[in-house]
Specification:
mainly beta, seven-stranded mixed β-sheet, 11 strands
């Protein structure tokens, strides 16, 4: 089984920054891509950012473009989400997810880390 563990969440004022980390452990697993998602209270879970290991391509939700940066270290099975210029609407539980090499969906999910942005 593969475990994904997120860390780095917390309480920050609007305009501040946080860096989330997602570490994968468990059985040998080669991910095709890693993603970050978030879910605010009373709302659906939404996509935030994606990193494809091969080629390093990235993709972002429009509302975070220019403020968030996804990066990773494939050798360490770790992915990061640098979040700058945070807004109160970024408040949510942030999850990371891993898509397997031969999969068309995200196969593994972490339990999330809470990000709260105060105004």
């Amino acid at each position: 089984q593969v475990q994904l563990v997120e860390s780095g969440g917390g309480l920050v004022q609007a305009g501040g920054s946080l860096r989330l980390t997602c570490a994968a452990s468990g059985r040998t697993f080669s991910a095709y891509a890693m993603g970050w998602f978030r879910q605010a209270p009373g709302k659906e879970r939404e996509f935030v950012a994606r990193l494809t290991w091969s080629g390093g391509s990235t993709f972002y939700q429009d509302s975070v473009k220019g403020r968030f940066t996804i990066s990773g270290d494939n050798a360490k099975n770790t992915v990061y989400l640098q979040m700058n210029s945070l807004k109160p609407e970024d408040t949510a539980l942030y999850y990371c997810a891993a898509q397997g090499m031969h999969s068309s969906r995200y196969d593994y999910w972490g339990r999330g880390t809470q990000v709260t942005v105060s105004s």
